[in-house]
Amino acid sequence: MSIQINLGAWRSVFAVPSQIVDEGLKFADGVKLKVLLYVLRNADRNLELEAVSKATGVNVTDIPEALDYWVSRDILQKNDQVYAPAASGAPVQPPDIPKNETKPETAEDISKDVEQQKQRFVVTKPQKPDYVFTAQRLAVDEDLKILVSEAQTMLGKTLSNSDVATLLMLKDTCGLRLDVILMLIQYCVGIDKGNMRTVEKIGISWADEGINSVEAADRKIAQAAHASKCFSLVSSVFGLKNVGSPTKKQLEYSTKWVGDWKFSAPMLREAYERCVDNKGELKFNYIDGILKKWEAQGIKNLDDLKQSEAVPKKAPARSQKSSYDINELEKIDTLDFID
């Protein structure tokens, strides 16, 4: 009698570390999983990005980001653009646990584990999920449905699949709470930047800073409003028009000059004119040097400045050579030997 087992699809298999499911799956989207599975399946081959893209349908530019995600999860390691299994990602045989010591995992334990995973994941440049994954999640995720519905009301338009993918990324990959995302959208609408591009940019920034509560979001929005008000005064004094969004450094300078040091518009204008006179152009760092000097000297208005500059500066003391009278030296020498 002969026995034959038809393995079918199981005739060709490859290993997938359990760590991928245990730790990486929660925050991975379809793009990340597609790329990882294809790379693992062809681990013995030298793969070109174009080949991976053709086989998975993932854009070539998105593949390195997907692989870098698995590097952040300690599944892969990267060295000079070469990816390899990470040492911590190798399967490890767990120790035997006696049956009487086995403790079932509770819902609270699972919830704590999820929160720990969110804290471990540092958002650098998160990957938006693809069309299929987004559609599948929207069909079953009630929280995502609510988020999309509220966002459409706030923005006054029907969200595209790409827009929904952005919200899903902020919710799952970045780990922002629903109420925080909604506050973010409302804030963007309030500053006349009610578009998903701005929502995505600020949302990723908030996730990087760990802003994931209503209180933290309130503080962040208040800080942003204060910085914007300070820059508005500075840009008006400097005669800046159509500058678009200020840079992070410009906001920091403006907040320091106006919010912290309390310089008035006339003092800002004086510093600006001195900068242009000396440098021929506007330089924020040069103006910062001028204002920093005035702040250290306690100069807060133009009258203080005039009084300070009216005081004549003392000339540096000249080093004088000691002159001696030879006769006096001879007397001193003589006296030294008199008993």
User: N- to C-terminal separation?
Assistant: 135 Å
Number of helices: 16
Q: How large is the share of residues in beta strands?
A: under 5%
User: Portion of residues in helices?
Assistant: 55-70%
What is the gyration radius calculated from CA atoms? 33 Å
- CATH topology grouping of the largest domain: Arc Repressor Mutant, subunit A
Shape: elongated
When the domains are counted, the total is: 3
Number of strands: 2
List the helices and strands and how they pair.
Blueprint: H1 18-24, H2 30-41, H3 49-56, H4 63-72, E1 76-79, E2 82-85, H5 107-120, H6 131-140, H7 142-155, H8 161-173, H9 178-190, H10 196-208, H11 214-238, H12 248-260, H13 265-279, H14 284-297, H15 302-310, H16 326-336
Report what the structure shows:
This protein is mostly helical. It has three domains: 13-90, Orthogonal Bundle (Arc Repressor Mutant, subunit A), CATH 1.10.10.10; 131-212, Arc Repressor Mutant, subunit A, CATH 1.10.10; 222-309, Arc Repressor Mutant, subunit A (Orthogonal Bundle), CATH 1.10.10. 59% of the residues lie in helices and 2% in strands. The chain has 16 helices and two strands. The chain has helices at 18-24, 30-41, 49-56, 63-72, 107-120, 131-140, 142-155, 161-173, 178-190, 196-208, 214-238, 248-260, 265-279, 284-297, 302-310, 326-336; strands at residues 76-79, 82-85. A two-stranded antiparallel sheet has the order 1-2. Helix 11 (214-238) packs across helix 12 (248-260). Mean pLDDT is 79; it is low at 89-103, 116-124, 319-326 and 329-339.
